[in-house]
Design a protein that fits this description.
single chain; 204 residues; alpha+beta; 2 domains; three-stranded antiparallel β-sheet; 6 strands; 32% helix; ferrous iron binding; oxidative RNA demethylase activity; Alkb
Length: 204
């Protein structure tokens, strides 16, 4: 993932590592589910690295200090992964809370794109919808072909899906696809920021 290389093999390596450290449970159903032990010997604990450095100025093998005089704290880097830097306590707790709120409330707002756009189109106020226990359901007009064929909105995902109050969804036909806003919020992985690039017109 750093310093070039084959993208596909790196992605595979990342997914392999992700599976190694994923939370699994013991398969024995007779007892209460217990998490399976995970080998963490190859995991870097940056908290312990900082504690070691503060205690005696040393760092473990493979970790070094970056030349960053503009910072008032040490900046660590990994020797085998150029371009990776770790700045301990770079953000205060208040700043972390601020950006967490922004990432859930502001950043996913259209026209920014998220990992949900490819399937559900643009979703407005996802965080508020999750708090109000709303559900994203298929638009019946689109399903029944009631929108004009020459209307580009008919093929727009933003018009194929609509947010609905959760109680009313249960009374609808069971064949209608739906997903709760809280589930979408929990599965939110990324959002774009800044000017959006229109690939068809090749403009921002």
């Amino acid at each position: 993932m750093y310093g070039g290389g084959d993208t596909e093999s790196e992605r595979t390596a990342f997914r392999k590592a992700e599976k190694i450290y994923k939370l699994y449970y013991q398969s024995n159903t007779k007892k209460k589910k217990q998490p399976r032990a995970v080998d963490l010997t190859q995991v870097l604990d940056f908290k312990s690295i900082v504690q070691l450095f503060n205690a005696n100025g040393q760092v473990p093998p493979g970790v070094s200090l970056a030349a960053a005089p503009q910072f008032d704290r040490p900046v660590f880097c990994l020797e085998k992964h150029p371009g990776f830097y770790f700045i301990p306590q770079a953000l205060s707790v208040a700043e972390q809370c601020h950006w967490i709120r922004e990432s859930l409330t502001s950043f996913p707002q259209p026209p920014n794109r998220t990992n949900h756009n490819a399937v559900y189109g643009s979703i407005h106020d996802l965080f508020i919808a999750a708090k109000e226990r709303k559900v994203l359901v298929e638009n019946q007009n689109c399903l029944k072909g009631l929108l004009p064929d020459n209307n580009s909105l008919a093929t727009d995902l933003a018009y194929r899906w609509e947010l609905s109050e959760e109680p009313s969804v249960t009374s609808r036909e069971s064949t209608i696809k739906s997903i709760s806003a809280s589930t979408l919020l929990r599965k939110l992985r990324w959002s774009t920021l800044g000017l959006q690039f229109d690939w068809s017109k090749v403009i921002f």
